[in-house]
Amino acid sequence: MRTDAARTRYTEHMPNSGLVIDMLTLLRLPSVGPVRARKLLDALGSPDRVFGASVSRLCDVPGIGPKSARDIASGVERARRAAKTEAERAHAMNARIIVDGDDAYPPLLRDLPGRPMVLSMLGAFDAEDADRFSVGIVGSRKSSVYGQEQAERFGGALASAGLTVVSGGARGIDSAAHRAAVAARGRTAVVLGCGLEHVYPPENRALYDQIVDSGGCVMSELPIDAPPEPGNFPMRNRIISGLSLGVLVVEAGLGSGALITARIAAEEHGREVFALPGRVDSEAIAGNLMLLKTGGAHLVTEPGDVLSLLESPAHHLFRGSHGDRYQSPAAGRPIADKPPAAPTQPAVSRPEPDDPAERAVLGCLGEPATMDELMQRTGLSAADLRRTVTMLELQGWVGRSGAKLARRG
């Protein structure tokens, strides 16, 4: 995977900082994986306290028995050496490592149980700005022509509208969605089921280079040299869901891993789930039909359906109330069955957006106007205007009334 374009504005945060090394060390301790690492931190408060804890203190941590405690206590220096080596290898390929607690850690992941403690990435995922509004697109590796067409249709349209397309880079639906986003000159992010030193599937090397070169991102929570193994992919799915406001299932059979992503999105993360319909006698779409029959997904037939259904969660994210809207059952608070309606006026006064195109559109909406009228008034191209209006709708600044757009605040 080519990495020269991965040097972005993030290069000042290189992967050898003390916090990065500490978190990598924690995850490289013997008998410790992401779940135990989180338990250790919850119980002891910081990596330093974990590293300095006695065997008896480690045994007090839920899930840590005497043997694991001895392995942890004796393995700190070896784990730290491994962490430094990994950081150096990441630096050599221009990858960035961010950790839970870092300012750059994606906000949509911060409140989720089981969130990754470390993310390594090539390229950029700008969760505070360009990638703030993301949609997951998933489906079967063994996709039909129909599935490929729809993945490209939705991936391209949603990326053109200003959403970041998040998927897993797998063959079939995932790759089609990524390719369409790049072709539309939109943003897309790949969440790998292996470490960054591997390209999987191998035929996607050129695609991943295009994604990074175009300003997108290829990321993983796994050690940089971790091979693509079957057990990695269900874990990867929770990141796709967690990074996204909603997840679109394009085409999935009953055994597809895309249904795992849909379940995580709905049951664990409280995200919106969408599914396309298809032939009722097709095994390739049976998972979609099951989701639709059981009420596990919204039926969508047009990219505009997805945009409309994402308006409320995007509005909460923009206002900073997304964590309240989507509470995890694990936190003891139920997820709301339906998002509250977006207010017709912003709840509090706020400065206008910084983006010049967004400000121009708002300035032309002293009274409701059609897209054609806005195109004439702003001088924006049709594609740029569509993308700008979509972002303003998602942020709650603009609403639709028939064929016209009206300013909400």
Account of the protein in words:
The protein is of the alpha/beta class and 409 residues long. Helix content is 44%, strand content 11%. The strands form 2 sheets. The chain has a 9-stranded mixed β-sheet, sandwiched between helices. Strands 10-11 form a two-stranded antiparallel sheet. It starts with 17 loop residues before the first helix and ends with a strand.
Question: Would you spell out the secondary-structure blueprint of this structure?
Answer:
Elements: H1 18-28, H2 34-44, H3 47-51, H4 55-59, H5 66-74, H6 76-92, E1 96-99, H7 107-110, E2 118-123, E3 134-138, H8 145-160, E4 164-167, H9 173-183, E5 187-191, H10 205-213, E6 217-220, H11 232-242, E7 246-249, H12 258-268, E8 272-275, H13 286-293, E9 298-299, H14 303-319, H15 322-325, H16 356-363, H17 371-378, H18 382-394, E10 398-401, E11 404-407
Parallel strand pairs: 3-4, 3-7, 4-5, 5-6, 7-8, 8-9
Antiparallel strand pairs: 1-2, 2-6, 10-11
Helix pairs in contact: 1-6, 8-9, 8-14, 11-12
N to C succession of SSEs: HHHHHHEHEEHEHEHEHEHEHEHHHHHEE
Strand content: 5-15%
Helical stretch tally:
18
Shape: globular
* Radius of gyration over C-alpha positions, nearest whole angstrom: 22 Å
**Portion of residues in helices?**
40-55%
Task: Report the span from N to C terminus.
Answer: 46 Å
State mean pLDDT (0 to 100 scale). Answer: 86
Side-by-side strand order of the widest sheet: 1-2-6-5-4-3-7-8-9
Q: What is the strand tally?
A: 11
Indicate the low-confidence ranges by residue numbers. Answer: 4-16, 328-348
Largest sheet: 9 strands, mixed
Which structural class matches the secondary elements? alpha/beta
